[in-house]
């Protein structure tokens, strides 16, 4: 990802499991064809962005403060 994190995504049409680096996987439920949201609404992944990015991860770093961080990502080239 743009910030150096490694993201692994495994999914199905109704949900995805996303793992960042060595953290435990997060299950995100589909709210549309290209948008997945965590149960608490603090993590959002949007795919097939029209900005040239393949995915955007947005999250609330501290739920007690009104802020959100968005990180764009492109598919890794192998």
Number of helices: 0
Q: Indicate the low-confidence ranges by residue numbers.
A: none
- Whole-number mean pLDDT: 83
Number-wise, the strands total: 7
Structure in a nutshell:
Helix content is 0%, strand content 49%.
Topology readout:
Elements: E1 7-12, E2 15-20, E3 26-32, E4 35-38, E5 43-47, E6 55-59, E7 69-73
How would you sum up this structure, described in words?
There is one protein chain. The chain is mostly beta strands and 78 residues long. It has one domain. 0% of the residues lie in helices and 49% in strands. The chain has no helices and 7 strands. The chain has strands at residues 7-12, 15-20, 26-32, 35-38, 43-47, 55-59, 69-73. It has a 7-stranded antiparallel sheet with strand order 1-2-3-4-5-6-7, with no helix packed on it. A hairpin with a 7-residue loop joins strand 5 and strand 6. The radius of gyration is 12 Å and the shape is globular.
List keywords for this structure.
78 residues, mainly beta, 7 strands
């Amino acid at each position: 990802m743009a910030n150096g994190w490694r993201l692994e995504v495994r999914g199905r049409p109704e949900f995805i499991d996303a793992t960042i680096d060595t953290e435990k996987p997060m299950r995100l439920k589909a709210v549309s064809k290209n948008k997945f949201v965590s149960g608490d609404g603090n993590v959002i992944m949007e795919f097939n962005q029209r900005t040239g990015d393949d995915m955007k991860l947005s999250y609330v770093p501290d739920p007690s403060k009104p802020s959100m961080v968005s990180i764009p990502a492109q598919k890794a080239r192998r």
